Amino acid sequence: MKRSSADKTRVFYAAVGQRIATARAGKITQEALASRAALTRTSIINIEKGRQQVFLHTLIDIAQALSVPVTDLIPATGGVEAQLRDKTQKGVEWVKTSAAALKD
């Protein structure tokens, strides 16, 4: 079954939130990130959970507060190669081997 546009949007923003949470983890608290990005802690929680969409200028503020490139917070939306970009070499090889086996 094909995903609806709303489902794709939800998945995308959940992925953005996960990337923000990962970039923040062990570095600063949600409260500190909220303060640096001129947001509330509740907004950070909702963004990290994918419940709140984030404006582009806000995403840039969050990236600056985390000292990461904004591109690190945007999930890959391309093909398999783009989706494997953040995976370990062992994981990439496993996926490629598995995909090749399915073709045979």
Descriptive account of the structure:
This protein is mainly α and 104 residues long. It has two domains: 1-73, Orthogonal Bundle (434 Repressor (Amino-terminal Domain)); 77-104, no CATH class. Helix content is 62%, strand content 0%. It has helices at 5-24, 30-36, 41-48, 56-66, 80-83, 89-103. The model has no long low-confidence stretch (mean pLDDT 86).
Helix content: 55-70%
Number of folding domains? 2
The helix tally amounts to 6
Low-confidence runs: none
Secondary-structure class: mainly alpha
What distance separates the N and C termini? 25 Å
Outline type: globular
CATH topology of the largest domain: 434 Repressor (Amino-terminal Domain)
Succession of helices and strands: HHHHHH
What is the typical, i.e. mean, pLDDT? 86
Q: Write down how many β-strands occur, each being a DSSP E stretch of 2 or more residues.
A: 0
Query: Which percent range describes the beta-strand content?
Result: under 5%
Could you give me the name of the CATH homologous superfamily of the largest domain?
lambda repressor-like DNA-binding domains
Q: Main sheet?
A: none
- CATH class of the largest domain, named Mainly Alpha
Which assembly state applies to the chains in this document? single chain
Which architecture of the largest domain does the CATH hierarchy give at level 2? Orthogonal Bundle
Q: Report the radius of gyration as a whole number of Å.
A: 16 Å
Give a brief description.
Helix content is 62%, strand content 0%. With 104 residues, the protein is an all-alpha fold.
